[in-house]
């Protein structure tokens, strides 16, 4: 239950806002116990302890007396209105001497005359104590009869938070514990004047039950609690059918990506505060590939399913892309939002998104977004010639995250890149929601802030890449490794900063979020993320098991993550569930691989990542799919040199480039299984550089003549250049040299 942080109103005038549907709540009195407030309470420590920690008031004692507090200002409830008194409490432990919380009145001798109270000690256990005393004919209410008790055994346990609620409906009271109705009184009941916490009386022992309170509040009518929605970032939501087949599925079929643990701490923290998932708070998973405006619209559809009551608001907590969606939706629906909190969100875009969109350069970090994008590229690249084509077709969100700030330079002058006009327009109007907005940024990790560009080649123009020019060098700025500080912050909003990388910022800010939302129970911020991890994804008619150096793991909804492994010496074991195709994506460091084939029901297929057989099989299948018969024959003979030569010939004449990136990568791997002498490696590298230089010379001549190279020329050159990024690697240089040789054929 969220806290209401309001100023105490001395006046007892009740304000009601009437609608045709329901009565709105109005706070009469509340305290969230961030500090000692003498304007609200009279405090008696009685040789005990009253302290305030993290928005919680703790009462304890090791003497014969126990602390006692009561409200310092008079009558809180009306004689003929509807009000609610609510306590959020926790008995840290139960001992012989009891204490409690409740309402009633305090006699002149300080004796607490409870009308309704929760009491707990080791002898009787937790009980509801009450007096159903009616007001006498002269209007006087005197508590003379003894307290009645209802056992709350098994309903209140040590060190757990509970909600004690007293609802007054005219002169009838309903008593609830954790939303369970415990008691309904007859009519014409007395009206309590005091809230009482603790025990003012001395005890025969010094062993007291320790009591903590998160809040106490008094309000009119029915208090409408804000609903909270967590919105994860790019890649943190998954639907295997949609990812593999690129078909639309119902929004509620997107779930948290199984390996993602970045939101577990926040979810646990909400639950520790008594919030119930899918009732008090929600986690919205979504198709993050869509254009930004469509994602915001999808979120609006989701909010409509929450059936908000009249006057009810929501609090939004979004990470990365999720925070951007939260902020944009808040701009569209400001009256429905109380607080909008963004964690490491690219409000003004990310330079990494620009590189991905213009050259399919995905971050080398193994974070949620890069893993998701790499897996998407692997399973869909067979439908396109290049990774750029694949990304632009299947993940238009990447363009919408391109920076709206100036970050490109050529020859010292600024270059204005393309960006989302939707995002820019929204940014220009963001000040309207600044009072609702909190923007949290991370710092301490080098984050790309600027790019120095060279010229764009004719090949780039043909392929439609690097429209502004090829990146030559980079400038780093302050950020979390993915999003710059200046992009995560919105001036005029509440700004908070943590030393954190992009993935850890949710954990690092969890206690701050709890405090911001008025939740008093904080959480131990212990979380760790591996420096390296082997990732396996199977979207197929098979169940996957992985063994990496003796560490054996079964899949979780298609995913296996082996921490502190690089994937180089792992074996994938597939057990067919039906007759069909299998699709497997894995990584070796930052190199991603895709395997597919057919599998029968109950068939077992073993894929040895450290061996070569799986690469021969994948190569044969892809070459067969494009009709490269001679290359297939060479693969059958396991003659990699002949297979490369035959594929290059076929590629040159057929101009078929399907599966080309995967074919080249498999060939590189297989050729690399041989051992080469240093002079051979150096010689092949120089030979490839000479071929590259010849291609560039011819390109300059074409440029002078105004001739445009063909698509096949441009693609052969681009894929050769990608191979050359491996440096002095015999296999990569050998294949690159072959590709340079057919650029002009």
Concise summary:
Helices cover 28% and strands 28% of the residues. With 745 residues, the protein is of the alpha+beta class.
Which terms summarize this structure?
745 residues, 28% strand, alpha+beta, 7-stranded antiparallel β-sheet, 8-stranded antiparallel β-sheet, disordered N terminus, single chain, Rossmann fold, Jelly Rolls
List the helices and strands and how they pair.
Elements: E1 27-31, E2 41-44, E3 49-53, E4 56-60, E5 68-71, E6 82-93, E7 99-106, E8 112-120, E9 127-130, E10 148-151, E11 161-169, E12 172-177, E13 180-184, E14 194-198, E15 210-220, E16 227-231, E17 237-238, H1 240-245, E18 255-256, H2 264-272, E19 281-283, H3 292-304, E20 314-319, H4 321-332, E21 337-343, H5 351-359, H6 368-380, H7 387-394, H8 397-400, E22 408-410, E23 413-415, H9 421-427, E24 437-443, E25 445-453, H10 458-463, E26 471-479, H11 485-488, E27 494-499, H12 505-508, H13 510-516, E28 533-538, E29 542-548, E30 551-554, E31 559-563, E32 570-576, E33 580-588, E34 591-599, E35 604-608, H14 613-626, H15 629-636, H16 640-654, H17 660-671, H18 678-705, H19 711-724, H20 730-741
Parallel strand pairs: 16-19, 16-20, 20-21, 21-24, 22-25, 24-27
Antiparallel strand pairs: 1-15, 2-5, 3-4, 4-15, 5-14, 6-11, 6-15, 7-8, 7-14, 8-9, 9-10, 11-12, 12-13, 17-18, 22-23, 25-26, 28-31, 28-33, 29-30, 29-32, 32-35, 33-34
Helix pairs in contact: 3-4, 5-7, 6-7, 14-15, 14-17, 15-16, 17-20, 18-19, 18-20, 19-20
């Amino acid at each position: 239950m969220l806290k209401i942080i309001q100023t105490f109103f001395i006046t007892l005038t009740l304000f009601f806002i009437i609608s045709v549907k329901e009565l709105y709540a109005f706070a009469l009195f509340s305290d969230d116990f961030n500090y000692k407030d003498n304007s609200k309470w009279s405090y008696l420590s009685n040789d005990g302890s009253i302290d305030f920690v993290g928005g919680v008031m703790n009462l304890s004692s090791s003497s014969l007396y126990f602390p006692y507090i009561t409200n310092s200002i008079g009558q809180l409830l009306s004689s003929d209105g509807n009000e609610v008194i609510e306590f959020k409490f926790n008995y840290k432990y139960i001992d012989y001497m009891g204490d409690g919380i409740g309402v009633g009145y305090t006699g002149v001798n300080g004796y607490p005359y409870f009308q309704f109270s929760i009491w707990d000690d080791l002898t009787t256990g937790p009980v509801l104590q009450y007096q159903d005393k009616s007001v006498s004919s002269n209007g006087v209410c005197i508590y003379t009869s003894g307290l009645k008790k209802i056992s709350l055994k098994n309903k209140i346990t040590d060190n757990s938070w509970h909600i004690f609620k007293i609802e007054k409906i005219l002169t009838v009271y309903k008593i609830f514990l954790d939303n369970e109705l415990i008691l309904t009184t007859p009519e014409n009941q007395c009206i309590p004047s005091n809230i009482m916490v603790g025990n003012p009386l001395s005890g025969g022992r010094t062993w007291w039950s320790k009591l903590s309170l998160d809040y106490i509040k008094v309000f009119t009518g029915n208090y409408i609690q804000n609903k909270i929605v967590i919105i994860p970032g790019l890649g943190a939501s998954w639907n295997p059918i949609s990812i593999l087949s690129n078909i639309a599925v119902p929004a509620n079929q997107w779930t948290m990506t199984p390996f993602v643990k970045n939101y577990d701490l926040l979810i646990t923290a909400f639950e520790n505060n008594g919030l119930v998932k899918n009732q008090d708070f929600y986690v919205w998973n979504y198709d993050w590939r869509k254009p930004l405006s469509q994602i915001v619209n999808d979120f609006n559809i989701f909010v409509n399913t929450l059936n908000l009551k009249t006057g009810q608001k929501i609090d939004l907590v979004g990470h990365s892309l999720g925070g951007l969606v939260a902020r944009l939706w808040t701009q569209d629906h400001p009256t429905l939002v109380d607080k909008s909190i963004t964690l490491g969100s690219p409000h003004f875009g990310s330079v990494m998104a620009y590189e991905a969109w213009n050259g399919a350069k995905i971050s080398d970090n193994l974070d949620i977004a890069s893993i998701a994008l790499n897996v998407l590229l692997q399973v869909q690249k067979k439908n396109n010639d290049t990774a750029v084509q694949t990304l632009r077709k299947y993940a238009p969100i990447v363009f919408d995250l391109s920076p709206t700030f100036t970050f490109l330079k050529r020859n010292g002058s600024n270059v204005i890149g393309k960006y989302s006009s939707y995002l820019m327009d929204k940014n220009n109007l963001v000040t309207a929601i600044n009072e609702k907005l909190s923007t949290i940024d991370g710092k301490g990790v080098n984050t790309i802030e600027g790019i120095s560009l060279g010229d764009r080649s004719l090949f780039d123009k043909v392929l439609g890449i690097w429209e502004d020019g090829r990146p030559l060098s980079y400038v780093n700025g302050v950020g979390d490794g993915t999003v710059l500080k200046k992009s995560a912050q919105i001036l005029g909003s509440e700004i908070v900063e943590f030393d954190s990388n992009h993935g850890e910022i949710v954990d690092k800010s969890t206690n701050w979020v709890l405090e911001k939302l008025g939740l008093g129970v904080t959480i131990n911020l212990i979380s760790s993320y591996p420096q390296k991890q082997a990732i396996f994804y199977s979207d197929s008619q098979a169940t996957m098991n992985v063994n990496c150096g003796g560490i054996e793991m079964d899949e979780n909804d298609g995913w296996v993550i082996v921490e502190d492994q690089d994937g180089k010496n792992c074996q994938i074991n597939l057990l067919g569930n039906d007759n069909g195709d299998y699709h497997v994506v894995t990584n070796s460091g930052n190199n991603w691989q895709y395997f597919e084939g057919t599998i029968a029901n109950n068939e077992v297929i073993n894929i040895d990542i450290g061996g070569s057989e799986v690469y021969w099989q994948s190569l044969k299948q892809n070459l067969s799919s494009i009709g490269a018969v001679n290359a297939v024959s060479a693969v059958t003979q396991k003659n990699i040199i002949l297979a490369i030569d035959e594929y290059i010939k076929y590629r040159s004449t057929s101009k078929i480039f399907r599966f080309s990136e995967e074919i080249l990568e498999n060939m590189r791997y297989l050729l690399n299984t041989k051992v080469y002498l240093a002079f051979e490696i150096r010689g092949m590298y120089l030979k490839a550089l000479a071929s590259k230089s010849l291609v560039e010379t011819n390109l300059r001549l074409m440029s002078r003549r105004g001739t445009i190279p063909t698509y096949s020329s441009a693609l052969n050159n681009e894929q050769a250049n990608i191979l050359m990024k491996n440096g002095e690697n015999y296999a990569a240089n050998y294949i690159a040299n072959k590709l340079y040789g057919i650029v002009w054929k």
